[in-house]
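Re: beginner question about structure tokens

> Can someone show what the tokenized structure looks like for a real chain? I only ever see the sequence side.

Sure, here's an example I had lying around. Input first:
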Amino acid sequence: MNPPGSILVATDYSRDAGFAASRAVTLAAELGVDALALLHVVEAPWLGALQQWFGLADASRQGLVAEAERSMAGLVAAIEAERGRRPAASVVVGSLLETVIEHAAGVDLLVIGARGQHPVRDFAVGTTGERLLRKRRGAVLVVRGAADGPYRRVLAPVDFSKHAAHVLEQAASIAPAAQVDALHAFEVPFEGKLRFAGVPDDEIHRLRQYARSQAVEGVAKLVTEAGVDSSRVRCRVEHGYAPRVIVDAARAGGADLIVIGKHGESIVEDLLLGSVTLHVLGEARCDVLVVSAQ
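And the corresponding structure tokens:
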């Protein structure tokens, strides 16, 4: 359970990007991370058209870069004044998605704001946020609010895929002082069809109880496999549709971070960002750490 050794914040200087930078500095201080950097991408696809039509691309490019560099200098100075730390900083011209992925390739943790000037808000299929998370091969922390200290309540939804123990490891590692809730949401297979076929309620209840007992054993086994101190972990099993169970549990329990796997158990979800993960990203009110499979 190693904490990240390097952190990169992708910023567009928006309010939420400022939250992301603040959280990254807080994490770096708590986890002892020396390699902390900020990245801003100047994305201006219309520069090529200006050059072709008016020959103005060079001047426009220089102006945009100069403005972005001034904003970056102000951000770095603010962090240094408030937190006593001066992160490395880069301003790069290029495609937002490809540039961020390239610069984050060798970084353990990429931190982004949930909203900004670019469409990373909804995390729906096809948006910049969804494509970034799908292409990124490492962990991504999506920050939704100001950092008022280290994470204290972490919710770690787990299935029983081969990557589930890794999710628990990362939850314990990213928040070493936090209580971790290992949550599994279950449903009885084909419960709706069973009801439609006239299966008695008491039999469906029996099936639910059996599924619950199997899930309880499975979560306990995962905690052991992850090597997490069991005194830090509360095992929870809830019946219901997984995305809704996760979001409701996070709100009811006052979680300030959800740690969730990038992929689900199905082949279809492995080809895209998992549908459960997308739902949680779109609905959760707290920060979300998306963990890639090892």
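Each token stands for a local structural state, so reading them left to right follows the chain. The mean pLDDT is 84.
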